[in-house]
Write a structure and sequence with these properties.
It is a single chain. The chain has 134 residues and is mostly beta strands. Helix content is 3%, strand content 45%. It has one helix at 62-65, and strands at residues 6-8, 15-21, 25-30, 37-41, 45-49, 52-56, 76-82, 87-91, 95-99, 107-110, 116-119, 125-128. It is globular, with a radius of gyration of 14 Å.
Length: 134
């Protein structure tokens, strides 16, 4: 990741409680509280685990996303948003989800109290009510 600025996202300990598939892929992240986070991915992304690397793209249709459904009920160990618009989410079972920036808004993470991080079209981050430090 080099010297690029990054933000630790408040996802540690949250579980994937729901997966939604349409022209994008959405993960609903929650715990025992009523506040949930929503991670919306609208382009290609990767799942990495061990030596396996799976490239997925929701625009190719629901069957192409099937491997990502294995994230349901998995717990998150950490998440980072990089200054260039990349997203990295580490799961406790050893899988890493990575979304690279693209010419479109590649991903959006929204949560309680107006919390929102957006990977901007062409790269970079839009941040609202982050409550976090870089």
């Amino acid at each position: 990741m080099g010297s690029e600025a990054s933000w630790e996202l408040p996802l540690d300990g949250l579980r994937v409680v729901q997966c939604r598939v349409d022209y994008g892929f959405t993960l609903i992240l929650g715990d025992d509280s009523p506040d949930a986070f929503e991670l919306r991915i609208e382009g290609g992304f990767e799942l990495l685990g061990g030596s396996a690397k799976t490239k997925l793209d929701p625009s190719t249709g629901p069957p192409a996303i099937a491997p990502a459904l294995s994230l349901l009920n998995k717990e998150i160990d950490g998440g980072q948003a990089l200054e260039n618009g990349e997203l990295i989410v580490q799961f406790t079972h050893g899988v890493l989800l990575r979304v690279s920036p693209s010419e479109f808004e590649a991903w959006t993470l929204s949560g309680p109290s107006g919390f929102r991080f957006v990977s901007l079209a062409g790269g970079g981050l839009g941040i609202w009510n982050r409550g976090l430090s870089s």
